[in-house]
Amino acid sequence: MRCDDVIDRLSPFLDDELDPVESQAIVEHLATCTSCSAALARQQKLSADLRAELEYHRAPDLLRARIQGDARASLGPADRRAPFAVPWRWLSAAAAVAVVVGAGWVALIGTNEREFAAMTREAVSDHVRSLMADHLDDVVSTDQHTVKPWFNGKLDFSPPVDDFSASGYPLVGGRLDYLSGRAVAALVYQRRKHVINVFVWPAADGGATMSPVSTRQGFHVIRATHGGMAFCLVSDLNADELRAFAKMVTG
Amino acid sequence: MPSGGLEGFDASVLRYLDAAYNLARYLLRDPHDAEDAVQDAFLRAVRHFGSLRGSDGRAWLLSIVRNTCFTRLRGRRRAAEAVEFDEVEHTAQASESEPEADLARAMAAVTLREGLDRLPVEFREALVLRELEGLSYKEIAQATGVPIGTVMSRLARARRHLSIALGAAGKVED
Question: Which chain A residues are within 8 Å of B12, Cβ to Cβ?
Fold first, then answer.
């Protein structure tokens, strides 16, 4: 196979979409041709960069609830259709709880209440997702000097990373996550057997605030701002210890 | 195989809501438009759920979503034709039928995200479905309603132009 033919087929080759004969011919060519191998490496890097850098936009919870409501109205059992509209009710009840809990603090930092409730929901689902399978941490390290540089180039800010082992809250790793449509740093700490996710992103202003502990799906959530960063802590740890930890994290 | 009713719909279609929304975001490049389009698409999917009959729920849903999005894009283009040239320019992107050299010129970009935004929308769609959704060429062909060969060439061209744009911002020729 000539170089031109190989270059033309690198894209489907990379996607494993060529028939075995063509694929084999390319493998043989690549073994001896450095310029085509370099071209393959560039394509592989492009794919990896796309997967790493492009945001995966998950559907907002409110959209999901609307769509579930629509589907239920047309497809659900006839006797349970219109009167129930369950997701909406659940959602507004849950939002109401979050709003009551967070309202004072929300007014303080000027976030609107709906945004606050939506972000709390999202942070809790991120936390739950992080507990599933091996998703918890992409960089497993108890060393803050390994975790902090890992975020370089992955985020447009540098999250504060500290280890609190001495106080009984060891750092176990970090990963990228998404909250309210932006990439955030997720730092993972542990308190005994409890996992604590600390989501960090740049705050709109530099004030220092801390919300009361709110509860959602059995998890405790605290929002805070400090030193130009916004924090959201989620854990099944008891409220008092989580509050104490939030104070450490926000200096 | 999906059963009928709400449970069947949840299991074979609704579970791909994130994929639907992500595709709409990349096609329309506007969160509110994307939400509206996805909700419209799901209303349509609910109405026509009976016609799914055991085929691939993801490709089926994504084809409804992308058709809804393309209808909106055509509406935008018509609206743009009626306004000032500057605004048209501002939202312009290369089209699939442009010659390679013109496309390369339109693609002179620096970041991955900008490069992706400047690709013809059909190329961007193929890349998102392949790289972010991990669909096979066959599934992409089903979702976008074109032959597999077209998927293959769209992806190859999309990657070539992205590489050029990233490798040499400012350089316009291949």
Answer: none
